[in-house]
Amino acid sequence: MRPWPSLYLIVLKQLLFLALYWVAALQPLPGSAADQLTGKLVISGSSTIAPIVSEIGKRFESLHPGVRIDVQTGGSSRGVADARQGLADIGMVSRAIKDEEKDLHAFPVARDGVGIILHKENPVQTITDEQVIAIYTGTVTNWKQVGGKDAAITVVNKAEGRSTLEVFLQHFKLNNRDIKAQVVIGDNEQGVKTVAGNRSAIGYVSIGTAEYDESQGVPIKLLSVGGVAASTKTVQNGTFPLSRPLYIVTRTPPIGLAKAFIDFAQSKAVHDIIKQQYFVPLGD
User: Fold this and answer.
1) How far, rounded to the nearest angstrom, does the alpha carbon of residue 265 sit from its chain's CA centroid?
2) Global pTM?
3) For the packed helices 50-63 and 256-265, what is the interaxial angle rounded to 10 degrees?
């Protein structure tokens, strides 16, 4: 008798078993992170946080090719409303969470400040809180009244629902109805473009946005507030008076993809992104 056919079948079976073993071993386990991290997240709200979240989203997508992050702006009020109504998976809020918003689950990701900006060629180098109030309420209407050139001041204000407006009003103890503005803008970039295009304009925007745009050659400058320079550094050391936390929020405790993204956004793995955007990371 020739044993070769039986031996051949035994070897073939062993090879088949090994092949099936390795195929199974290379598959992700059911319920594993690789298996779960697929799908799309819609994130909406604050234009201040949007640049950070967009860059964090790109890095998250590169780590998880099956994931897509859609970031939309519209202000902190939109971020709260969209999260509550389920129109967004995550909302962005660039201010402290209000008492009536405590039903949401809030996760801090960074800190920022709100700074007064002028055109770079405006000769005014410093301005007091009293002068800011006078300008925004229409008592002072010409730059020569505060040490500048003889030119009418163009007051740029933020639209209702923008957290930058709320921080500004709170610090200067103003009511929005008392502000005499010639231009009302939405997001920070609109504010920067308006002031950069008008040598007589004054506005207020995110310090992170302003510092980033200055570094790119946009002709604006930040003024001190309360005698403290407006900068990421003074926000970081706690001396700048108009600082604020930056949050992402959800309607329910996050799970799955949303939780993985929020954990990533709060981790040290994105501190370089936050600093590149001129904001202050958590723990710094």
Assistant:
1) 11
2) 0.74
3) 120
